[in-house]
Q: What sequence folds into this?
């Protein structure tokens, strides 16, 4: 089972594929984007990670998928989103190009992935984590019905979020 196409509002998520390599490299080279995720990586490292992401997304094991994020009114993709699932829970993640951050795209991405986790995969909870100083992600989690996990600071730099199935 390969990653499905997901939609919510103006957002369309399609499984990451070879044509998305430039987007993936741009995201991983962006200081503005990566400051919320990890260190910026060089192009060769990003290409290796991209190849691995494509293989995982194309596999028949539905435990780790990555999608490219596009908007119905845009010719190019604006970011990537991910889902790592187990039998009872899933973790979501997202990276948007700097010019698309804070413009409401993330709300629809999280909605689509969370709904997929609950309704299709049948997980009991969806989780996320954030860098402690990522205020936009914090607001997005709150608006999307996630609760901050008490004692959920993974380290002093990371905070965990959780949303249980209704």
A:
């Amino acid at each position: 089972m390969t990653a499905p196409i997901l939609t919510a509002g103006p957002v369309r998520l399609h499984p990451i594929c070879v044509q998305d390599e430039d987007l993936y490299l741009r995201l991983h080279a962006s200081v503005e984007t990566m400051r919320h995720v990890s260190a910026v990586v060089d192009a060769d490292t990003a290409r290796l990670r991209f190849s691995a992401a494509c293989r995982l997304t194309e596999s028949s094991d539905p435990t780790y998928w990555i999608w490219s994020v596009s908007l119905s009114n845009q010719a190019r993709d604006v970011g990537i989103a991910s889902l790592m699932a187990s039998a009872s829970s899933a973790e979501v993640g997202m990276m948007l190009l700097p010019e698309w951050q804070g413009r409401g795209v993330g709300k629809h991405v999280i909605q689509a992935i969370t709904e997929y986790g609950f309704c299709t995969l049948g997980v009991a909870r969806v989780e996320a984590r954030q860098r402690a100083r990522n205020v936009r992600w914090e607001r997005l989690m709150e608006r999307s019905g996630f609760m901050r996990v008490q004692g959920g600071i993974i380290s002093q730099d990371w905070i965990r979020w959780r949303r249980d199935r209704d």
In short: The chain has five helices and eight strands. The chain has one domain: 6-164. Residues 6-164 form a domain with the Aminopeptidase fold (CATH 3.40.630.30).
